[in-house]
Amino acid sequence: MASGTVVLSVLLVDTQHTDALFLDQGVHFALGQPALSATIPKMKSGLLVSLVLYGIACCLPALTFRKSGTPDDIMLGLRALAVGWSGVFAGVLGWYANPLYFLGLAFTLMRKPVPAAIACLLAVAAACTVFNDLGRELPGDEGGVTKTAIVRVLPAFYVWVASFLVLPVAAFLQRAK
Question: Which residues, 6+ apart, have CB-to-CB distance to 177 below 8 Å?
Answer without folding.
Answer: 42, 43
